[in-house]
Predict the 3D structure of the following.
Amino acid sequence: MNIYLPEPLFLIIYSYVGHNSLYLNKFYYNFLIERRNEFVDKPLKISYRLCRWKQKQYDIENNYARKARPSMKVNTESIIDISGGRVFGEIDDKGLLCRFTQKFENSLIPVSESKYINWPYPCMIVKYWTLFSLKCNEIERYKRYQDLWVV
């Protein structure tokens, strides 16, 4: 049994059901492949900025009373090309991505570093990164991308 639906309606069903919606008709598989090729040929560009934090943690045995606050440095903007298969969060009307997935955030952030220093006071210097901003300038393309890939 083949069920013919308009393409926008199929994309709505596909966003909820996923690949099980391809059982409606074989035509929709070819439709998805054609629409996904747009992003393979011309990848989606997402710009992001990382924030580097550096914090000293003094040794407890020395009873050093001063609490050191972390220092922060925002790195320059970097661009990542996305051609498909990755799922992000939601986008607002200004192009800022919010509520993105933890898996995507972990792929952008480098591994934390730590270094132990003995002089003048024994302390450990920890460097870690957080995501400062995540932006996509092509809002309409991003929304089309979101319709074509589901988890």
Q: What stands out?
A: Residues 27-41 form the longest helix (15 residues). The chain has four helices and seven strands. Strands lie at 44-58, 71-74, 78-82, 90-91, 97-98, 113-117, 123-135.
